[in-house]
Specification:
transmembrane, metal-binding, UDP-2,3-diacylglucosamine hydrolase activity, Metallophosphoesterase, Metallo-depent_PP-like
Protein backbone atom coordinates (compact mmCIF):
# COMPACT_ATOMS: atom_id res chain seq x y z
CA UNK A 1 0.00 0.00 0.00
CA UNK A 2 2.82 2.40 0.88
CA UNK A 3 4.64 1.58 -2.37
CA UNK A 4 1.44 2.15 -4.34
CA UNK A 5 0.94 5.53 -2.65
CA UNK A 6 4.53 6.50 -3.42
CA UNK A 7 3.80 5.84 -7.10
CA UNK A 8 0.24 7.15 -7.45
CA UNK A 9 0.48 10.39 -5.44
CA UNK A 10 3.35 11.96 -7.46
CA UNK A 11 1.52 11.03 -10.67
CA UNK A 12 -1.65 12.64 -9.31
CA UNK A 13 0.28 15.80 -8.42
CA UNK A 14 1.87 15.93 -11.86
CA UNK A 15 -1.53 15.42 -13.52
CA UNK A 16 -2.94 18.28 -11.44
CA UNK A 17 -0.32 20.86 -12.41
CA UNK A 18 1.31 19.88 -15.69
CA UNK A 19 -1.66 20.78 -17.98
CA UNK A 20 -1.64 24.34 -16.58
CA UNK A 21 0.57 25.50 -19.43
CA UNK A 22 0.15 29.19 -18.74
CA UNK A 23 2.51 28.63 -15.80
CA UNK A 24 6.25 28.33 -16.49
CA UNK A 25 7.47 24.74 -16.65
CA UNK A 26 9.69 25.19 -13.59
CA UNK A 27 6.75 26.60 -11.57
CA UNK A 28 4.54 23.68 -12.59
CA UNK A 29 7.22 21.19 -11.61
CA UNK A 30 7.78 22.84 -8.22
CA UNK A 31 4.03 22.94 -7.55
CA UNK A 32 3.76 19.24 -8.45
CA UNK A 33 6.71 18.34 -6.19
CA UNK A 34 5.25 20.31 -3.27
CA UNK A 35 1.83 18.69 -3.74
CA UNK A 36 3.39 15.22 -3.97
CA UNK A 37 5.48 15.79 -0.83
CA UNK A 38 2.40 16.87 1.10
CA UNK A 39 0.39 13.97 -0.27
CA UNK A 40 2.97 11.36 0.74
CA UNK A 41 2.92 12.31 4.44
CA UNK A 42 0.08 9.85 5.32
CA UNK A 43 2.11 7.00 3.78
CA UNK A 44 5.11 8.03 5.88
CA UNK A 45 2.95 8.01 9.01
CA UNK A 46 1.76 4.51 8.14
CA UNK A 47 5.37 3.33 7.93
CA UNK A 48 6.14 4.88 11.33
CA UNK A 49 3.04 3.20 12.78
CA UNK A 50 4.07 -0.21 11.49
CA UNK A 51 7.68 0.14 12.59
CA UNK A 52 6.81 1.45 16.04
CA UNK A 53 9.58 4.04 15.82
CA UNK A 54 7.39 6.86 17.17
CA UNK A 55 5.39 6.85 20.40
CA UNK A 56 1.75 6.07 19.58
CA UNK A 57 0.42 9.17 21.34
CA UNK A 58 2.57 11.43 19.16
CA UNK A 59 1.69 9.47 16.04
CA UNK A 60 -2.05 9.69 16.77
CA UNK A 61 -1.88 13.48 16.82
CA UNK A 62 0.09 13.47 13.56
CA UNK A 63 -2.48 11.19 11.94
CA UNK A 64 -5.22 13.82 12.15
CA UNK A 65 -3.55 16.24 9.69
CA UNK A 66 -2.58 13.14 7.71
CA UNK A 67 -6.28 12.34 7.31
CA UNK A 68 -6.86 15.91 6.19
CA UNK A 69 -4.26 15.37 3.46
CA UNK A 70 -5.90 12.11 2.33
CA UNK A 71 -9.30 13.79 2.05
CA UNK A 72 -7.67 16.65 0.15
CA UNK A 73 -6.14 14.19 -2.32
CA UNK A 74 -9.45 12.41 -2.87
CA UNK A 75 -11.16 15.70 -3.66
CA UNK A 76 -8.35 16.73 -5.99
CA UNK A 77 -8.64 13.41 -7.82
CA UNK A 78 -12.33 14.09 -8.41
CA UNK A 79 -11.52 17.63 -9.57
CA UNK A 80 -8.88 16.40 -12.02
CA UNK A 81 -11.23 13.87 -13.60
CA UNK A 82 -13.99 16.47 -13.95
CA UNK A 83 -11.65 19.19 -15.21
CA UNK A 84 -9.96 17.08 -17.85
CA UNK A 85 -13.18 15.33 -18.81
CA UNK A 86 -14.68 18.74 -19.58
CA UNK A 87 -11.45 19.73 -21.35
CA UNK A 88 -11.80 16.68 -23.62
CA UNK A 89 -15.40 17.63 -24.42
CA UNK A 90 -14.28 21.18 -25.17
CA UNK A 91 -11.60 19.81 -27.49
CA UNK A 92 -14.17 17.71 -29.36
CA UNK A 93 -16.41 20.79 -29.63
CA UNK A 94 -13.39 22.88 -30.73
CA UNK A 95 -13.94 25.41 -27.97
CA UNK A 96 -10.45 26.78 -27.49
CA UNK A 97 -11.69 29.39 -24.99
CA UNK A 98 -13.06 26.70 -22.65
CA UNK A 99 -9.92 24.62 -23.01
CA UNK A 100 -7.84 27.60 -21.83
CA UNK A 101 -10.17 28.38 -18.91
CA UNK A 102 -10.13 24.80 -17.65
CA UNK A 103 -6.33 24.80 -17.40
CA UNK A 104 -5.77 28.20 -15.80
CA UNK A 105 -3.72 28.56 -12.59
CA UNK A 106 -6.67 30.32 -10.96
CA UNK A 107 -9.01 27.34 -11.39
CA UNK A 108 -6.44 24.80 -10.19
CA UNK A 109 -5.29 26.79 -7.15
CA UNK A 110 -8.92 27.62 -6.36
CA UNK A 111 -9.81 23.92 -6.43
CA UNK A 112 -6.83 23.16 -4.19
CA UNK A 113 -7.91 25.83 -1.69
CA UNK A 114 -11.55 24.69 -1.73
CA UNK A 115 -10.53 21.06 -1.20
CA UNK A 116 -8.35 22.13 1.72
CA UNK A 117 -11.20 24.06 3.35
CA UNK A 118 -13.71 21.25 2.85
CA UNK A 119 -11.26 18.73 4.30
CA UNK A 120 -10.63 20.97 7.33
CA UNK A 121 -14.38 21.26 7.88
CA UNK A 122 -14.58 17.48 7.66
CA UNK A 123 -11.89 17.10 10.33
CA UNK A 124 -13.77 19.50 12.63
CA UNK A 125 -16.96 17.48 12.13
CA UNK A 126 -15.16 14.22 12.84
CA UNK A 127 -13.75 15.40 16.16
CA UNK A 128 -17.19 16.27 17.58
CA UNK A 129 -18.65 13.70 20.03
CA UNK A 130 -21.68 11.87 18.62
CA UNK A 131 -25.33 12.63 19.31
CA UNK A 132 -27.95 9.97 20.04
CA UNK A 133 -30.01 9.04 16.98
CA UNK A 134 -33.12 7.02 17.79
CA UNK A 135 -34.82 4.91 15.14
CA UNK A 136 -37.32 2.06 14.99
CA UNK A 137 -36.37 -1.26 13.43
CA UNK A 138 -39.24 -3.38 12.09
CA UNK A 139 -38.28 -7.02 12.49
CA UNK A 140 -40.27 -10.02 11.19
CA UNK A 141 -40.63 -12.78 13.76
CA UNK A 142 -39.76 -10.60 16.75
CA UNK A 143 -41.18 -12.23 19.92
CA UNK A 144 -43.83 -10.24 21.78
CA UNK A 145 -41.61 -9.94 24.86
CA UNK A 146 -39.00 -8.05 22.83
CA UNK A 147 -41.46 -5.47 21.51
CA UNK A 148 -40.08 -2.01 22.27
CA UNK A 149 -36.65 -3.27 23.40
CA UNK A 150 -34.22 -0.32 23.32
CA UNK A 151 -30.75 -1.29 22.08
CA UNK A 152 -27.87 1.22 22.16
CA UNK A 153 -25.19 0.54 19.54
CA UNK A 154 -21.74 2.00 20.26
CA UNK A 155 -19.70 0.99 17.23
CA UNK A 156 -16.19 2.10 16.35
CA UNK A 157 -15.42 4.24 19.39
CA UNK A 158 -11.68 4.01 18.59
CA UNK A 159 -10.63 5.30 22.02
CA UNK A 160 -7.21 6.90 21.55
CA UNK A 161 -5.27 10.06 22.42
CA UNK A 162 -7.67 11.80 20.00
CA UNK A 163 -10.91 10.14 21.15
CA UNK A 164 -9.69 10.42 24.73
CA UNK A 165 -11.30 9.81 28.13
CA UNK A 166 -13.35 13.01 27.89
CA UNK A 167 -14.68 11.98 24.49
CA UNK A 168 -15.56 8.48 25.73
CA UNK A 169 -17.11 9.96 28.89
CA UNK A 170 -19.41 12.06 26.70
CA UNK A 171 -20.46 8.94 24.78
CA UNK A 172 -21.19 7.12 28.04
CA UNK A 173 -23.25 9.98 29.48
CA UNK A 174 -25.31 10.46 26.34
CA UNK A 175 -25.91 6.72 26.07
CA UNK A 176 -27.14 6.42 29.64
CA UNK A 177 -29.42 9.45 29.18
CA UNK A 178 -31.15 7.54 26.34
CA UNK A 179 -32.21 4.79 28.82
CA UNK A 180 -31.33 1.70 26.75
CA UNK A 181 -32.39 -1.79 27.86
CA UNK A 182 -29.33 -3.33 26.22
CA UNK A 183 -25.97 -1.83 25.22
CA UNK A 184 -23.77 -3.42 22.55
CA UNK A 185 -20.30 -2.54 21.26
CA UNK A 186 -19.73 -4.31 17.92
CA UNK A 187 -15.97 -3.83 17.71
CA UNK A 188 -13.17 -1.31 17.24
CA UNK A 189 -13.40 0.01 20.77
CA UNK A 190 -9.73 1.05 20.85
CA UNK A 191 -6.57 2.06 19.02
CA UNK A 192 -3.09 1.65 20.44
CA UNK A 193 -1.77 -0.64 23.15
CA UNK A 194 -3.28 -1.14 26.60
CA UNK A 195 -0.63 0.83 28.47
CA UNK A 196 -1.21 3.97 26.40
CA UNK A 197 -4.99 3.55 26.11
CA UNK A 198 -6.21 2.22 29.46
CA UNK A 199 -7.26 5.63 30.78
CA UNK A 200 -9.17 6.45 27.58
CA UNK A 201 -11.50 3.44 27.84
CA UNK A 202 -11.99 3.68 31.63
CA UNK A 203 -15.38 5.49 31.32
CA UNK A 204 -16.84 2.37 29.65
CA UNK A 205 -17.03 0.83 33.13
CA UNK A 206 -19.92 3.22 33.86
CA UNK A 207 -22.15 1.70 31.17
CA UNK A 208 -25.15 -0.07 32.69
CA UNK A 209 -28.32 -1.54 31.20
CA UNK A 210 -31.08 -3.91 32.34
CA UNK A 211 -29.95 -6.66 29.98
CA UNK A 212 -26.25 -5.93 30.20
CA UNK A 213 -23.38 -4.42 28.24
CA UNK A 214 -21.95 -6.71 25.55
CA UNK A 215 -19.01 -6.40 23.17
CA UNK A 216 -17.57 -8.28 20.21
CA UNK A 217 -14.12 -7.69 18.68
CA UNK A 218 -13.36 -5.58 15.61
CA UNK A 219 -10.32 -5.55 13.38
CA UNK A 220 -8.54 -2.84 15.42
CA UNK A 221 -8.55 -5.04 18.53
CA UNK A 222 -6.43 -7.50 16.54
CA UNK A 223 -4.00 -4.72 15.58
CA UNK A 224 -3.58 -3.45 19.14
CA UNK A 225 -2.73 -6.46 21.30
CA UNK A 226 -5.90 -8.56 21.37
CA UNK A 227 -5.37 -10.63 24.52
CA UNK A 228 -4.32 -7.66 26.65
CA UNK A 229 -7.33 -5.63 25.53
CA UNK A 230 -9.81 -8.45 26.13
CA UNK A 231 -8.47 -8.75 29.68
CA UNK A 232 -8.88 -4.99 30.16
CA UNK A 233 -12.45 -5.03 28.83
CA UNK A 234 -13.34 -7.83 31.24
CA UNK A 235 -11.84 -5.80 34.08
CA UNK A 236 -14.12 -2.91 33.07
CA UNK A 237 -17.15 -5.17 33.29
CA UNK A 238 -17.88 -5.64 29.59
CA UNK A 239 -19.36 -9.01 28.66
CA UNK A 240 -17.32 -10.33 25.74
CA UNK A 241 -18.84 -12.39 22.95
CA UNK A 242 -15.96 -14.11 21.17
CA UNK A 243 -17.72 -16.74 19.04
CA UNK A 244 -20.10 -17.11 21.95
CA UNK A 245 -23.85 -16.93 22.49
CA UNK A 246 -25.64 -15.78 25.63
CA UNK A 247 -29.32 -16.56 26.18
CA UNK A 248 -31.17 -13.57 27.67
CA UNK A 249 -34.69 -13.58 29.06
CA UNK A 250 -36.49 -10.48 27.76
CA UNK A 251 -39.93 -10.43 29.38
CA UNK A 252 -40.31 -14.15 28.77
CA UNK A 253 -38.81 -14.11 25.28
CA UNK A 254 -35.62 -16.13 24.77
CA UNK A 255 -33.11 -13.88 23.01
CA UNK A 256 -29.85 -15.35 21.71
CA UNK A 257 -27.29 -12.55 21.82
CA UNK A 258 -24.05 -13.57 20.16
CA UNK A 259 -20.83 -12.14 18.81
CA UNK A 260 -18.21 -13.50 16.45
CA UNK A 261 -14.54 -12.83 15.79
CA UNK A 262 -13.36 -10.60 12.98
CA UNK A 263 -11.94 -11.54 9.56
CA UNK A 264 -8.78 -9.65 10.60
CA UNK A 265 -7.82 -12.74 12.65
CA UNK A 266 -4.30 -13.86 11.82
CA UNK A 267 -2.92 -10.33 11.65
CA UNK A 268 0.30 -10.00 13.65
CA UNK A 269 0.78 -7.07 16.02
CA UNK A 270 3.76 -5.63 17.87
CA UNK A 271 1.44 -5.37 20.87
CA UNK A 272 0.80 -9.13 21.02
CA UNK A 273 2.36 -11.07 23.89
CA UNK A 274 4.42 -12.84 21.21
CA UNK A 275 4.55 -10.56 18.13
CA UNK A 276 5.13 -13.59 15.90
CA UNK A 277 1.91 -15.32 16.99
CA UNK A 278 -1.61 -14.09 16.10
CA UNK A 279 -4.07 -13.53 18.94
CA UNK A 280 -7.85 -13.61 19.14
CA UNK A 281 -10.39 -15.78 17.35
CA UNK A 282 -11.52 -16.14 13.73
CA UNK A 283 -15.21 -15.52 12.96
CA UNK A 284 -17.25 -18.68 13.60
CA UNK A 285 -20.93 -18.16 12.81
CA UNK A 286 -21.60 -21.91 12.76
CA UNK A 287 -20.70 -22.24 16.45
CA UNK A 288 -22.96 -19.43 17.68
CA UNK A 289 -25.82 -20.51 15.39
CA UNK A 290 -25.60 -24.00 16.85
CA UNK A 291 -25.49 -22.64 20.40
CA UNK A 292 -28.60 -20.54 19.74
CA UNK A 293 -30.49 -23.50 18.34
CA UNK A 294 -29.50 -25.82 21.18
CA UNK A 295 -30.60 -23.18 23.73
CA UNK A 296 -34.06 -22.97 22.17
CA UNK A 297 -33.74 -19.27 21.36
CA UNK A 298 -36.73 -17.55 19.81
CA UNK A 299 -34.70 -14.79 18.19
CA UNK A 300 -31.01 -14.40 17.32
CA UNK A 301 -29.25 -11.00 17.52
CA UNK A 302 -25.66 -11.08 16.27
CA UNK A 303 -22.76 -8.66 16.77
CA UNK A 304 -20.44 -8.91 13.76
CA UNK A 305 -18.07 -6.00 13.26
CA UNK A 306 -17.76 -6.14 9.47
CA UNK A 307 -21.05 -6.00 7.54
CA UNK A 308 -19.61 -7.94 4.62
CA UNK A 309 -20.19 -11.13 6.63
CA UNK A 310 -23.97 -10.54 6.51
CA UNK A 311 -24.92 -12.93 3.70
CA UNK A 312 -23.24 -15.90 5.38
CA UNK A 313 -24.76 -14.98 8.73
CA UNK A 314 -28.26 -14.60 7.29
CA UNK A 315 -28.07 -18.16 5.99
CA UNK A 316 -27.49 -19.38 9.57
CA UNK A 317 -30.83 -18.18 10.95
CA UNK A 318 -29.76 -14.82 12.42
CA UNK A 319 -32.68 -12.37 12.76
CA UNK A 320 -30.74 -9.12 13.29
CA UNK A 321 -27.07 -8.35 12.69
CA UNK A 322 -25.50 -5.21 14.17
CA UNK A 323 -22.27 -4.03 12.55
CA UNK A 324 -19.95 -1.05 12.25
CA UNK A 325 -16.54 -0.88 10.55
CA UNK A 326 -17.53 1.41 7.63
CA UNK A 327 -17.96 4.59 9.73
CA UNK A 328 -20.97 5.20 7.51
CA UNK A 329 -18.76 5.89 4.51
CA UNK A 330 -17.34 9.09 6.08
CA UNK A 331 -17.89 11.38 3.07
CA UNK A 332 -21.02 11.57 0.92
CA UNK A 333 -20.08 10.37 -2.54
CA UNK A 334 -17.05 8.44 -1.34
CA UNK A 335 -19.44 6.22 0.61
CA UNK A 336 -20.84 4.68 -2.57
CA UNK A 337 -17.87 4.60 -4.94
CA UNK A 338 -15.19 3.57 -2.46
CA UNK A 339 -16.61 2.24 0.84
CA UNK A 340 -19.59 0.28 -0.52
CA UNK A 341 -17.60 -1.92 -2.94
CA UNK A 342 -15.18 -2.84 -0.15
CA UNK A 343 -18.03 -3.94 2.14
CA UNK A 344 -20.30 -5.95 -0.16
CA UNK A 345 -22.47 -2.89 -0.74
CA UNK A 346 -23.26 -2.26 2.94
CA UNK A 347 -22.37 1.23 4.20
CA UNK A 348 -24.83 2.52 6.83
CA UNK A 349 -28.39 2.10 7.99
CA UNK A 350 -30.82 -0.77 7.40
CA UNK A 351 -30.58 -3.56 4.84
CA UNK A 352 -32.69 -6.63 4.13
CA UNK A 353 -30.40 -9.62 3.66
CA UNK A 354 -32.66 -12.54 2.92
CA UNK A 355 -34.83 -13.00 6.01
CA UNK A 356 -32.31 -11.12 8.18
CA UNK A 357 -32.19 -7.42 9.00
CA UNK A 358 -28.73 -5.83 8.93
CA UNK A 359 -28.06 -2.52 10.66
CA UNK A 360 -24.73 -0.80 10.00
CA UNK A 361 -23.83 2.00 12.39
CA UNK A 362 -21.98 5.12 11.23
CA UNK A 363 -19.88 4.75 14.38
CA UNK A 364 -19.56 6.67 17.62
CA UNK A 365 -15.91 7.59 17.07
CA UNK A 366 -13.30 7.66 14.37
CA UNK A 367 -9.89 6.23 13.54
CA UNK A 368 -7.34 9.04 13.85
CA UNK A 369 -5.79 8.05 10.52
CA UNK A 370 -8.80 9.36 8.59
CA UNK A 371 -10.59 11.75 10.92
CA UNK A 372 -12.86 13.32 8.31
CA UNK A 373 -16.67 13.37 8.11
CA UNK A 374 -18.67 15.25 5.49
CA UNK A 375 -22.41 14.62 5.50
CA UNK A 376 -22.05 11.48 7.64
CA UNK A 377 -22.02 12.40 11.35
CA UNK A 378 -20.88 10.08 14.11
CA UNK A 379 -23.76 8.41 15.91
CA UNK A 380 -24.84 6.69 19.10
CA UNK A 381 -27.60 4.55 17.61
CA UNK A 382 -30.62 3.88 19.82
CA UNK A 383 -32.62 1.13 18.10
CA UNK A 384 -36.19 0.49 19.22
CA UNK A 385 -37.18 -3.03 18.13
CA UNK A 386 -40.71 -3.56 16.82
CA UNK A 387 -42.38 -6.50 15.13
CA UNK A 388 -43.01 -6.17 11.40
Amino acid sequence: MVSLAALVIPLLALWLWWPVRSMPRRARLMAAVATAALGCTPALLLVLLREGTVEYRTLAYLQVPGGWVLALLLMLAVFIVLRDGLWALAAVARREDWKRRLHTPLLTTGALALAGLLSAWGVANALRPPEVHERTLRLPGLPAGMEGLRVAVLADIHASPINDARYVQTIVERTLEARPDLIVLPGDMVDGDVDSGRANVAPLAQLKARHGVWAAPGNHEYYSGYDAWMAEFRRLGLNLLENRMQLIDVQGARLALSGIGDPAYGRLSRQNTDPSVPEGVPPDIDTVARQAKEAGAQYHLLLAHQPRTARDNAARGVGLQLSGHTHGGLILGMDQWLVAPANDGFVRGEYEVGAMKLFVSSGAGLWAGFAVRLGVPASIDLLVLRGA
